[in-house]
């Protein structure tokens, strides 16, 4: 699996060295940031049927993000 770097340290999949430890990564365009998809990868839903194009990296977002369990109740 390719190395995926991530600086979002409060993500469940964040690992030492700013690495993503998820088994699968889902990245979407911002237009679909709030979309709910039907298949699941790394705990998140993913629509495997549609394709989009982004004009620059800042037009994308990671749907694999899952907040870390803080352990606080």
Structure, described:
This protein has 73 residues and is mainly β. It is built from no helices and 6 strands. The relative contact order is 0.28. The model has no long low-confidence stretch (mean pLDDT 75).
Architecture blueprint of SSEs:
Elements lengths: L13 E2 L3 E2 L6 E3 L9 E3 L2 E3 L13 E3 L11
Antiparallel strand pairs: 1-2, 3-6, 4-5
Q: Give a short account of the largest sheet.
A: 2 strands, antiparallel
The SSE order reads: EEEEEE
The radius of gyration over CA amounts to 13 Å
Principal-axis shape? globular
Strand-residue fraction? 15-25%
The N- to C-terminal Cα distance equals: 35 Å
Q: Count of DSSP E strands?
A: 6
Return the structural class. mainly beta
| Chain-averaged pLDDT | 75
Helix content: under 10%
Strand order of the largest sheet: 1-2
Poorly predicted parts: none
Helical stretch tally: 0
Which key terms come to mind for this protein?
mainly beta; globular; 73 residues; two-stranded antiparallel sheet
State the gist of this model:
The chain has 73 residues and is mostly beta strands. 0% of the residues lie in helices and 22% in strands. The chain has strands at residues 14-15, 19-20, 27-29, 39-41, 44-46, 60-62.
